[in-house]
């Protein structure tokens, strides 16, 4: 097992940029973009040959690409290009989220892919959408050859119970009581162990899994690298409480269902589950502002506060709106943008992203 | 092969009542509710046992039920109740149609099914949505055990070419030139043969297929039993042309992509394709007014013109609106309702519905 911890400051992250949003995205987890890929027929032989030749089932994309394009189709494309055979591609999301947008973009995706791959592409793979939580069983036993989840697994299945004392915070923070931190960790353990258990049942022996998710390097789950961006959002909400726009009780009863684990915590769950080997774990730092290294960004895209607040709005608005109401969302994110812009001008602001490669060996 | 032609006047039909509608439902075919069911693992053995025991892979629903409940889940439920094993259920529709509504109703459907079946239900089947045209390949070779299409196959993949002479009609009519009738039949042959060819590739040998669709008993494709309801719609549009609300050219260039075959035409295509046996073909007459035999219908539901126009609006509005514009739709269907009510008060008005049972023997 190799933990390849690297520092890369030129990488980008669009958090949940491709994530569909639906009415079910309330206080429950909003995980999406889990692309389960299974290949039938002669693909297994070809995959084995590729494995012995390249040491990987996949045509390896660059790490820059992986952080830039966390969408549903990204791994699919690399998988399809790598192995030409009949393939079933299952795109998973919660039943309440939006599959229509993904399905409507399929014909163009397939057209482009056909142009890219060239003739002889034929009817070689088949897309389906699988509605359901990936913290539950989704597929028949040993029916998958490859699983990928893209920037979703840091969302928990629900807000942890027993965290009423986490007042004026909306996530774990340095001011959170220890019982809150423990409740978050317990929920992560429950959820991630379920994910591993069910994927293990669904994958064939020798099947591969690649997970990308937000994490942290520190052993402290309240460390700045993973909690800061939410603390700034709590700050915007707290200001609105002080000014009478939001009831204090509303803020005190709101928490984000999210957990960004450290490598040791991930490893513990993988070892407890017992059927996966971690082939590699890469840790990268990714700038909050996805457009930070664009050569010629537009004036709007030069505004880091605008970019990051917009990106976070795509992730958090459905959850916030279901609790605080839609009407205050513009004001919340206006204030959030100002706070972010101020902090970005004064300090280095980065997420920590993990890419983890697994093989199911049992 | 047995053609079981029966007359049943007490049956009901909700045409495409469950059909999702999306922006792609324009002049192209709007086929939906094609439920492809494949069962993995030990289901094949069980299915074989059932076949030899019952003469059918399916727990046979009543014919009344089949016409009353043409929705996506109906056959699924009967299949699931009939064979308890891991099952993959693929729900197919065009990529532009609405999968979200179906997926959001899945948890309740599964909950009810669990209550109905009782304990031990477990993770025994898995739903996915498959976006794509059923006139194209959708699944891997020999990956399906059962296919069902519910009231969709009378929609063609496109409006037939070369029917510019079909003036003041919107479908085949007694006044249509012979070349129009031939063009419609040619398109039906092309489409239905493609459907059979691709499903044959996807089904295992011994796999079953049940198709429900609108048809006709007469050999004349312009006969009243299949064309009358569209002639009345053309009448409403034609009145609006005469009164200057619709341009004549707009009406002349509009045609519905639909074909209601007779048993002999279906049989011809099945024999040409060569890998299916028709085990049974049932022909039923179904009242235009789905609420006609309700014991205590509300005042609104007593109004046959209202019911039938509303039902037809669900089917035809997306196609009409994309050609004539949304603004005149209320007026079109107000006039259509009046015309339908008048005719229903004077004559017997019925659709002809087919249920066809196939086995893939090659």
Describe it.
The structure is a homodimer of 362-residue chains. The first copy, chain A, is of the alpha/beta class and 362 residues long. Chain A has a single domain, classed as Rossmann fold, CATH 3.40.50. Chain A is 41% helix and 18% strand. Chain A has helices at residues 43-54, 63-68, 72-82, 100-117, 178-202, 224-242, 248-252, 263-273, 299-302, 304-324, 329-346, and strands at 3-5, 34-39, 87-93, 125-131, 144-150, 203-214, 276-287, 350-360. Chain A has an 8-stranded mixed β-sheet, with helices on both faces. In chain A, helix 4 (100-117) links the parallel strand 3 and strand 4 (125-131). In chain A, helix 6 crosses helix 11 and helix 10 packs antiparallel against helix 11. Residues 1-35, 37-61 and 65-71 of chain A have low confidence and may be disordered. At the A-B interface, helix 4 and strand 4 of A face helix 4 and strand 4 of B.
* CATH-defined architecture of chain A: 3-Layer(aba) Sandwich
Described by its quaternary structure, the protein is homodimer
Number of DSSP-assigned strands of chain A: 8
* Highest-level CATH class of chain A: Alpha Beta
Question: What is the number of helical segments of chain A per DSSP (H or I, 4+ residues)?
Answer: 11
Ranges of chain A where pLDDT stays below 50 over 5 or more residues in a row are: 1-35, 37-61, 65-71
Which topology of chain A does CATH recognise? Answer: Rossmann fold
Count of all domains of chain A: 1
| H/E series of chain A | EEHHHEHEEHEHHHEHHHE
The helical percent of chain A reads: 40-55%
What general outline of chain A do the C-alpha atoms trace? globular
The CATH superfamily of chain A is Vaccinia Virus protein VP39
Region (Disordered) (chains A, B): 1-24
GO molecular function, one term (chains A, B): methyltransferase activity
InterPro entries (chains A, B): MeTrfase_7, MeTrfase_capping, SAM-dependent_MTases_sf
Family (chains A, B): Belongs to the methyltransferase superfamily. Type-7 methyltransferase family.
């Amino acid at each position: 097992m190799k933990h390849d911890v690297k520092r890369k400051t030129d990488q980008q992250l669009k958090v949940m940029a491709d994530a569909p949003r639906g009415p079910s995205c309330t206080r429950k987890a909003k995980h999406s973009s889990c692309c389960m890929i299974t290949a039938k027929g002669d693909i297994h032989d070809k995959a084995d040959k590729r494995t012995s030749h390249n040491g990987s089932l996949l045509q390896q994309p660059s790490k820059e690409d992986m952080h830039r394009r966390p969408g549903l189709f990204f791994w699919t494309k690399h998988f399809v290009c790598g192995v030409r055979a009949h393939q079933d591609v299952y795109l998973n999301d919660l039943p309440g989220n939006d599959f229509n947008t993904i399905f409507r973009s399929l014909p163009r995706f397939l057209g482009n892919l056909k142009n890219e791959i060239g003739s002889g592409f034929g009817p070689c793979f088949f897309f389906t959408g699988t509605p359901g939580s990936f913290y539950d069983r989704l597929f028949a036993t040993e029916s998958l050859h490859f699983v990928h989840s893209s920037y979703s697994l840091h969302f928990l299945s629900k807000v942890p119970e027993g965290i009423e004392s986490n007042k004026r915070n909306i996530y774990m923070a340095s001011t959170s009581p220890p019982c809150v931190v423990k409740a978050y960790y317990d929920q992560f353990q429950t959820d991630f162990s379920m994910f591993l258990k069910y994927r293990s049942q669904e994958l064939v022996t020798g099947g591969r899994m690649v997970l990308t998710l937000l994490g942290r390097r520190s052993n402290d789950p309240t460390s700045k690298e993973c909690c800061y961006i939410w603390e700034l959002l709590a700050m915007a909400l707290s200001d609105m409480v002080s000014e009478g726009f939001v009831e204090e009780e509303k803020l005190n009863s709101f928490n984000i269902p999210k957990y960004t684990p450290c490598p040791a915590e991930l490893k513990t769950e993988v070892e407890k589950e017992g059927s996966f080997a971690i082939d590699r774990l890469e840790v990268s730092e990714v700038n909050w502002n996805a457009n930070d290294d664009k050569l010629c960004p537009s004036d709007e895209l030069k505004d880091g506060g605008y970019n990051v607040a917009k990106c976070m709005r795509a992730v958090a608005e459905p959850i916030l709106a279901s609790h605080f109401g839609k009407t205050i969302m513009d004001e919340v994110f206006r204030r959030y943008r100002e706070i972010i812009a101020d902090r970005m001008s004064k300090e280095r602001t980065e997420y920590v992203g993990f890419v983890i490669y697994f093989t199911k060996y049992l």
